[in-house]
Amino acid sequence: MNKNSLLRICDLTKEEIFDILHDAEAFSCSQSDWQFPRRTLIANLFFEPSTRTHFSFASAQHQLGASVENFTAQGSSVEKGESLYDTVKTFESIGFDALVIRHSQDEYFKELENIQIPILNAGDGCGNHPTQCLLDLLTIYQEFHTFEGIKVAVIGDVKHSRVANSIKEAMDMLGGEVCFSGPKEWVETDASYKDINEAVQWADVVMMLRIQHERHQETMKMSKEEYLQNYGLTKERAAMMKPNAIIMHPAPVNRGVEIDSDLVEAKNSRIFQQMSNGVLVRKAVVKRALGYAPFDR
After folding, report:
1. 80 labelled binding-site residue
2. Which parts of the sequence bind L-aspartate (predicted)?
3. Which of 106, 118, 125, 279 is in Cβ range 3.0-4.6 Å of 289 for a Cys bridge?
């Protein structure tokens, strides 16, 4: 596997995380016009539906001057039974410089150890989503200018969320704290579980999660309205938050389910800022994947 691949947040050191965040910030100002000095060909291989991750990667790649191809399984040789490895090996063999991959299989990248071009993980099963984690970290850092002692409450469908796994790993590394809340059957650990009202009052960052219906084996037993009242961020719960606490959500947002619709664009919401930061972070990780050194700090 190429050393510049990004597969899991835990594969990065603390210094590497800060290098990526610094480069992302630089892309918003001093290095906004930086582009690849040579022709670069990148393919986005999405085996699951995506809007924000897919097209923020594409936006980042185009802004960096890369030639971009967007692959979907439908209409490809995958429908004829081609394996993931053979699909990826094909892109390597025909001259692509890097691949971005989202796949429903947990840790799909373990099948790709013999691939030599860099792979950027855009989400695997219920496991990892490193670039989402990095854009969340950038959003938190922009707000608080540190991670030390920052408390993040991750609330909702924790069990099926790759976002929850990645942010917990990162905040543990960077000196922050994470608690989980939501339906207890969707939270696999008791050690860091808090009741939702306690979690909202405790947190500096209230991160709501979408219900991942596509990963559930059975239909949710409560109505959308019941879920919001029991486990969602209502206006009443938002009023319990610390004065300087912020609301985050990896999106897509189910308004009126995990969060009251009026709170999505509230003064303390950073949901759309996260999306903007997604392009900056993905520019930084694509630059890193192609072997370019971090910008000077």
Report:
1. yes
2. 80, 162, 210
3. 118
